[in-house]
Write a structure and sequence with these properties.
The protein is an all-alpha fold. It has helices at about 5-15, 25-35, 35-55, 65-80. It has 4 helices and no strands.
Length: about 80
């Protein structure tokens, strides 16, 4: 069985379906047994879904967390008006 360290290291590739062989099944088995890793993978998936909404040209550039946070705050401020 994979360790939590293994699963967190492979989580991004797992979500992108870039793992092959029996590895996806081993990751799923670990996720069934480990609530912390399930939560980690769920939050990583949410992050992967949300980030492109806040960064234009996301695929072409390195992501700057501070820029994303500033854009989120600006949208919230605009929504409150």
């Amino acid at each position: 069985m994979l360790s939590c360290k293994d699963v967190t290291a492979l989580a991004s590739d797992y979500l992108d379906k870039n793992v092959g062989g029996t590895l996806p099944w081993k990751i799923r088995l670990h996720l069934v047994a480990c609530r912390c890793c399930r939560k980690f993978v769920k939050h990583l998936q949410i992050t992967k879904d949300v980030v492109p909404q806040f960064v234009e040209g996301y695929e072409q550039q390195e992501v700057d967390a501070e820029t994303i946070l500033m854009k989120i705050k600006a949208r919230e401020k605009h929504a409150q008006k």
